[in-house]
Description:
Alpha-Beta Plaits; 4 strands; 32% helix
Amino acid sequence: MAFVRHVVLVNLQFDESDPRTKEFFDETKKVYGTGAIPEVYEYHHYDQIIGETDYRYGFVLDFLSEEDFDICIKHPLALEYNRKYWNSAFLKDCLETNLIEFD
């Protein structure tokens, strides 16, 4: 079993003052950061401060195993979240990656 870190960088269709930005991150935290999906070990979201990438925001989900990650992405709450927020109405663009540690 390997610890999995799911890293997502996003640009939204609206600026930070738009209420939909708060809605996006409130809903992301509600689904992934409150224990609603128990396989998510930890959740954090971030605002880009240095400008070294083309992405404004990021969030990270940690899983204790690849199996937990697979369960999470098939969870009904995750599927509903993706249907509602993971689309062109909210996202301008995104980059996702899954990382495991190595020696």
